[in-house]
Amino acid sequence: MARVEGWDASFFAVAESKNGVDGFRSGIIPFACPTSKTGKRNLYDMRLVVTKTGWINGVFLCRAA
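The structure corresponding to this sequence follows.
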């Protein structure tokens, strides 16, 4: 999971590769996050956790600017 900086806000994008080291490809998958009246937001510190059931959960801070 990569944080991508846009001109007015940051967002997360899923990045994947065959070996986990090089040749990454990413697609932009939007994440629902509250915005302020200005429409700006910042995302910080994604932590990925694999659960016992095999699901991957992402926990992060979303701050409306």
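DSSP finds no helices and five strands in the chain.
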